[in-house]
Amino acid sequence: MMVAQKSTPRLKALYKDEVSTKTLAEFGLVNRHQLPKVEKVIVNCGIGRFLENQKLKPEIRDTVLDTLTTITGQRPIVVMARKSVSNFKVREGAPSAIMVTLRGDRMWHFLDRLINLAIPRIKDFRGVRDDAFDQAGSYGMGLTEQAVWPEINMARVNFTHGMNINICFRNSDPAKSLFVLKELGMPFVRKEDS
User: Fold this and answer.
1) Which domains are assigned to the chain?
2) In terms of Cα–Cα distance, which of 119, 129, 133, 124 is closest to 175?
């Protein structure tokens, strides 16, 4: 009986074979353990604005859950508000977001589809911002609608929603993370376009 071998995700292989070596040379790192590593990707949809009398409409919840499940291949969780804030009309215990945390091969497959399929489908796209890094080197970006994902059939969706995507790094800073993401193919805004 033959056992099918799992193939290594394309971006993961690219990172191990080429990007890590280039990063070592670019930043003068002497040890492979000093390399910046993509630790996890968090996909988050805020749903607080869709609340009606502190209850989320089932069709909105189901649409967001189905979208995130389809694009990530993993079941999302519903995040409840931890405290009440009257200015935002949020009560403790009300749903405030739906999120997925991706690690391992699923994370690499998601990043590959984000960089090579979803981002190029953004209308009037000129590149993603290259200044959205935090001090630890993690990168955050937002998508305004789920239609950029080829898996989503917009004919079956009753409303559009956006999502935030955070790419979390370990052993990094903004310069190293920017270099790694550029080498992985992330289409950043060119300086002459801005």
Assistant:
1) 35-184 (3.30.1440.10)
2) 133
